[in-house]
Specification:
The protein has 114 residues and is an all-beta fold. The protein has no helices and 10 strands. A 6-stranded mixed β-sheet has the order 2-10-9-4-5-6, with no helix packed on it. It has a 4-stranded antiparallel β-sheet with strand order 1-3-8-7, with no helix packed on it.
Amino acid sequence: VQFVESGGGLVQPGGSLRLSCVASGFTFSVYYMRWFRQAPGKERELVAGISAGGENTFYAASVRGRFNISRDNAKNMVYLKMNSLKPEDTAMYYCNGAPAREPWGQGTQVTVSS
């Protein structure tokens, strides 16, 4: 099993980023997929989720209306489009399935700062 996240970076408040995650080593198309984030000194938190076929999505209250999760089962990829970014969105972002599979990827760092 492998997760490789990318697309993070430094962005000003109000800006946008699109994160990507490519997964391998399991049958991606049948798994509910999720994005998590972990800020320094805080526990990992669930940000968004998407059903196997993409019909149903979930968002944490803190990101609802600003973030959009999507997936491409043909490419084994899941995406997180983040708009109207805030400094409190600063964290390492990870993708994984449900239930979570080991090992986790290295994540991609998102820093929102002026």
